[in-house]
Write a structure and sequence with these properties.
The structure is a single chain. This protein is an alpha+beta fold. It has one domain: Alpha-Beta Complex (Maf protein), CATH 3.90.950. The protein has 4 helices and 9 strands. The strands form 2 sheets. Strands 1, 2, 3, 6, 7, 8 and 9 form a 7-stranded mixed sheet that branches. A two-stranded antiparallel ribbon has the order 4-5. Strand 4 and strand 5 form a beta hairpin. The longest helix has 22 residues. It is globular, with a radius of gyration of 17 Å. It starts with a strand and ends with a helix.
């Protein structure tokens, strides 16, 4: 079955494509279909934004569509200061990978050089049978004010992130979460 993975971030597609292809799900991307559609992300949270995107791209292509939205929450910031769903948009400007590193390292520096954080992500699938969502939270991690590894294109903040849990436990949790996400996608994209 063909599905549209409605993202311009190749790192997000790569993360799930192998498992989905093994399950008989063929991923089409916005680039593959030469779709240039900007969806106004006006939702109050990651679920609403994921739904907005999934619906818009489904209506454009009539392909079962999966969309993803991420939210970022950092300890030490007030409710009003929280990053939330606009991780790449700061002060009305879209940030590229290097600009993100600069912005977030300065933010963390102002919080003392290290700040505990977490991501919340929501997948929405839109098909002829309706819309379904799956929300996932990452393990807490630390942001630091200097890069600790090379920039991962599409996921630049990985370069200023440090794990809190031991590597084995973190890896196990990530694999379990990825497996649940793939099962969710497979469940709602069956013919």
């Amino acid at each position: 079955m063909k599905i549209l993975f409605a993202t311009n971030n190749p790192a997000k597609v790569k993360r799930y494509s192998k498992d989905l292809e093994e399950a008989g799900v063929e991923i089409q991307t916005l680039k593959d279909l030469q779709i240039n559609l900007e969806v106004d992300e006006t939702g109050k949270d990651v679920e609403e934004n994921a739904i907005l995107k999934a619906k818009a791209y489904y209506e454009k292509t009539n392909l079962p569509t999966i969309a993803l939205d991420d939210g970022l929450y950092i300890d030490g910031l007030s409710k009003e200061e929280q990053i939330g769903t606009h991780i790449r948009r700061r002060n009305g400007q879209y940030l590229d990978d290097n600009e993100m590193i600069s912005y977030y390292t300065n933010l963390v520096r102002n919080l003392g050089g290290k700040a505990r954080a977490r991501y919340v992500k929501c997948f929405a699938i839109c098909t002829k049978n309706g819309i379904h969502t799956y929300e996932s939270k990452t393990n807490d991690f630390y942001f630091v004010d200097k890069p600790v590894r090379e920039i991962n294109p599409g996921y630049p903040l990985d370069s200023i992130s440090m794990k809190i849990l031991n590597t084995d436990e973190e890896s196990k949790n990530k694999l379990e979460d990825d497996k649940k996400i793939v099962e969710f996608i497979k469940a709602y994209t069956k013919n």
